[in-house]
Amino acid sequence: MRHNHLFTAAALVVTAAVTAPYYAGALSGEVAFPKIDNMYFEFTDAAKTELRLMECELPEKTEDSPYEPMAFVPGVVGDAKVTSIDPLAFRSPDGAAACVWIPRSTGISEEDLEEISKNTNFPIRFEMCEAAVDGLVFEKNPKVQDELSLVACYAVGDIVVPETVDGMTVTGISESAFENNQYISDVSLPDTVYSMGSKAFCCSSVSSVNIPQHLYVIPKQAFYKCTQLEKVGLHENITRIDPEAFSGCPFRLSEEYEELLFGVGSSQDTDQTGTADNWRYAFNNIKGSSCMILTKYTGKATDLVLPTTLNNSEVYGCIIDLPDCVDSLTVPDTIREINVSKLSDQSLKKLIMKGGDTGISGRFAGSKIEEAVISGFSVDSGGFEVSANMFKNCSRLQTVTYISGDSDFRIQNSAFMDCTSLSAVDLPDNCTSADIRMNAFDGCTSLKELGDFGKLFSVYTESRAFAETGLQSPVLENWKAGAYAFSGCKDMTEVTVNDSTIGESAFQRCYGLKSAELNGKTVLLDKAFEDCTALENVYIGADVTSRHSFMECPSLYKINGVDAYDTEKKEFNPDCADLVYKHFAGSNDVGFINLYVQDRVKAVVAECITDDMTDIEKVRVLHDWVCRNAEYDTIDPSDKLNHADISVFLRGVTVCEGYARALDLLLQEAGVDSCCVSSTDHEWNIVRIGDQYFHVDTTWDDGDKIGYYWFLKSDDELKAEGGSHASWKSQVTSSLHKQCFDSVPKCSYSVGDVNKDGGKNVADLVSMSNYLLGKGGLDEGSEALSDLNFDGRTDTFDLVALRRKVAES
After folding, report:
1. Which percentage of the chain shows pLDDT scores above 70?
2. What φ, ψ does residue 548 adopt, rounded to 5°?
3. Which residues contact residue 587 at a Cβ distance below 8 angstroms, ignoring those fewer than 6 apart?
4. How far is residue 100's CA from residue 70's CA, in Å, rounded to a whole number?
């Protein structure tokens, strides 16, 4: 039965240290009641062989506890077995939810536990196990009677695992028993333990531990990423240590133990070692057989071939540990396994494996290897694949040839990342598809061609699989390319995509890309071609679908080889107009889109603006044009169609960002400085009129009738409204928008605050009256403050309007 981990570290526990008996009259005469800390028991038979748990007071829940309160009921107390629990046994001092672990040997049924739950006035949960003591939970060894394996730990601090529990011997530490436990420190294991599962202490806070005398094998990732582990008590009987057993730990193996690094098999190994023909070797028990493992070469050969036999024994495998004189190594097909974990400190340049079934454990990462002809079988994963980080940072690696593998070839995360000299990876002959994971070839700047990957029936890639490689003209046939898959491939000049799905920003920042051909039922996701500044032409088939896939491609003027926009007729070319509407209506900074927007902006300004208009008149007229010609999209506001420069001019349907972008472009064309600003959920404009700055919100002024409530507002007026206008910041737009201001301007005064004292009052009426009577002037550059009807002049109509505002205030 597989143990279900409910928690990951220590708990508040009721321990099981037997103290003096507790006496009370329970049966005939005076009978002893055994007591275990906060647990009290009653004998249920005259022979005193069976016990009932009568009372258990659970500990209080404390803030520094990682768990709910727990109790661990023993299976045996002294010589008596616990066989029942009183329905009213459990009490909680604070009513906190609790968990009680109960041995299966008690024979207590689910019906009994349901009855106990009904009689308990606080939340209680029961978990069954083979045995439990001192916060440690055990299950039976399925192969050996009366042997236990530790499966979980809910104790805190220093842990002492007992040799026996309830009369059974503790012989194993199960897989992941202490994994992720951040509440343990020193751990003492009994010498009765002879087996340990992978990841037993993985990512835990263990700081010191002993390896039991009968534990001969330290398995895969047993202490992986135990970042506080500094002390490990090893012994001379250890025969095999997995290469990843202590990976990511401050603890380091001494040289004598490094020779034992190899893929782990059985827990029962021999300790025979020796030297012959310049090779050190050891015999390990692998799957029940004693096998010779070569552990170190001490000779002077430059081109080395592994021996198939040594001292009349067949060589099973080899830990590649070579002197600097060895340039190349050949592995015969009879060798079953090699370990390459130590290559990063060696000078080996060439590795040739003759057998497709020879397994590889460890990684080449950071080594000086230049050429590898190898099997695709990974001992670490137990299957045919290129393991994660296998060749990462092998800057001298030029070619890799795989002589075996599955038809679906898997390349895991960062397998070839930053192999800057890599020019080719040759796949097995039987390979028809590839599964390429995150960053697999990221940074392989010498990889100019896809090679065998371009010949496969289908290819799946994850994020940045080929990012920043040297690919020049890839052809993708039946690919499913992940996000940023080819991002930053600066040498790429053209790409052909057939019947493929291209992920978000897949070709982002491919600055040299000039042409893209898209055929068949290709699907392009968001920003697939983003910031491709040199892209000039796109061939798009009729069945291609896209979702706002072209952004910031300012050199793109052609579709299917013809100009997409006719600058003389000022319209889209009829041969590709449908493609423009289908694929580019939500694009910003695309060459032919920019031409269209610029021409439309100039046409609107020429139609609406005259030379004799003041800036305030220009702002009002263009504000009105946007309100008349734009309609808010209430159906799908988040659609990128609504967030582009072109939205108002092409479709007339948009959202606040489209309103603001349109007004900004129109004002700047009319000679009025402006910018776009945004809050968390809204966007509008700030404009400069004379020396004053004002907020203008065309979106909120666009109603059944054009309004001016949100026209020429000050900062204080906007903040007083709160909500979407409570705060704002500069909004990034596109290259069509000028950067008129170094920072977001302050809109200090509201229209009507003629004397700029911060309010609209009688003093402003006096100032305006004196101006109209010729008795005073207005501050130069602040004329807009006295133009309350926005007609470009200050007159009696403005005085009447100001009088009304003063009266209202």
Report:
1. 92
2. 50, 55
3. 548, 550, 551, 553, 593, 644, 646
4. 6
What DSSP element (H or E) covers 801? helix 796-808
pLDDT at 27 over 70: no
- List, in order, residues 6 or more apart from 378 with CB less than 8 Å away: 359, 360, 361, 384, 385, 386, 387
SS3 775: coil
Q: Is the pLDDT of residue 637 over 80?
A: yes
- Residue 421, helix vs strand vs coil: coil
Quote the radius of gyration of the chain (alpha carbons, Å): 39
Residues 689 and 451: their CA atoms lie apart, in Å, by 62
Q: Please state the φ and ψ torsions of residue 452, each to the nearest 5 degrees.
A: -65, -25
Q: 295 CB contacts (<8 Å, ≥6 apart)?
A: 259, 260, 273, 279, 280, 281, 282, 318, 319, 321
At residue 287, the pLDDT reads 63
**3 state SS for 591-631:** HHHHHHHHHHHHHHHHHHCCCCCCHHHHHHHHHHHHHHHCE
Q: Classify burial at 632, counting beta carbons within 10 Å of its beta carbon; exposed 0-12, middle 13-18, buried 19 or more.
A: middle
The DSSP-derived string for 51-94 is EEEEEEEPPPP-TT-SS-BEEE--SEETTEEEEEE-TT-EE-SS
pLDDT confidence band for 1 (50 / 70 / 90):
very low
Chain CA centroid to CA 761, Å: 58
Nearest to 476, CA basis, from 488, 489, 463, 485: 485
CB distance 738 to 665 below 8 Å:
no
Question: Both tokens of residue 91?
Answer: 């009490």
Helices 615-629 and 591-608 pack at an angle, to 10 degrees, of: 120
Least Cα distance to 786 among 712, 701, 729 occurs for 712
Rounded-to-integer distance, Cα 667 and Cα 674, Å: 7
Question: 223, 205 in Cβ contact below 8 A?
Answer: no
Q: Band of the pLDDT at 34, cuts 50, 70, 90?
A: low
pLDDT, tens digit, for every residue of 79-102?
Answer: 899 999 988 888 887 778 888 999
Lowest mean pLDDT among 45-59, 70-84, 285-299, 561-575: 285-299
State the pTM of this model. 0.68
Taking 80 as the threshold, does the pLDDT of residue 381 lie above it? no
Is the CB of residue 751 less than 8 Å from the CB of residue 783? Answer: no
Contact 622, 601 (CB under 8 A): no
Whether 3 shows a pLDDT value over 60: the answer reads: no
| pLDDT(300) > 80 | yes
**Exposure letters 682-693 (e unless 16+ CB within 10 A, then b):** bbbbbbbbeebb
Residue 82, amino acid:
V
HSE, side-chain direction, 13 A CA sphere, residue 475: 8
